[in-house]
Amino acid sequence: MQNSRKLIGHLYMAIFLIYLLVPLAVMSGAAFNASKLPTIIPWKGLTDQWFIALYNDNRIWGALANTLFVALAVVIIAVPVGAAGAILVNSISGRIRAVLYGMMVAPILVPGVVIGISTLLFWNQFSVPSGLHLSVLGQVSYIASFVMLLVLARLQSFDQGLEEAALDLGASHAQVMRRILLPHLYPALGAGAAISFFQSIENFNVTLFTRGGADTLTVYVFSKVRSGITPTINALAFLMIMVTIVFAIIYETRRRRNAAIEASREAEARRAEES
User: Fold this and answer.
1) In angstroms, what is the C-alpha Rg of the chain?
2) Using one digit for the tens of pLDDT, what is the confidence trace for 120-131?
3) Which of 4, 25, 137, 192 is 20 to 30 A away from residue 72, measured at CA?
4) For the whole model, what pTM was predicted?
């Protein structure tokens, strides 16, 4: 019975990985197919022409630069806003906390089209023209909620007695924040920054209504779908996948090295205690 459960678990994991990876493999393979359509069937031969076309496409590089600019700006704003909201919600209790929590989580449930139109109409009241700056503000309005949820979950494991002890020993509130609370929140802040970055990159609805005349990757791909998409997009996607894999390998290598160093220190400490 136990072997059957293990087999079913392994089978499910294999199907799940295939479901995730096969579309990426097909999309990447289309970047090397000589066909003018983004497909691997029929296979018309191995080529690098789509990477050359990508290199010569100034518009797509401009869209990529705009996308990265917006994503970094969203991270810079959303992480502090979300963290501050989480700390505020965690510091109060009762009905006020429930109301405030609901208000801060509500943007996640609102369709992106509504957020995009609302952002555009709101700032037009103050004669603020559309552009990438409005895309940043519109995305922050709901991405900050993701950061808040991550930080709030991390705060559940925080010992409030540490803050009280530090204050009793003469530390200021700024020192408590910098030396006790923030180090505890670093994992959640890092995860929030990563989620904010990738949520911004893949955003379409909010950006479409607020971007003005600027291009981002999602808007550019949308325009190419209407006018005729080529495997140039697949070439860009392949490069982005490779960059992601490289960063994932670097992160995992550093994590394992740090874990090995920590395990070595713990072993030395145990040997010292035994001796």
Assistant:
1) 24
2) 899 988 888 888
3) 25
4) 0.81
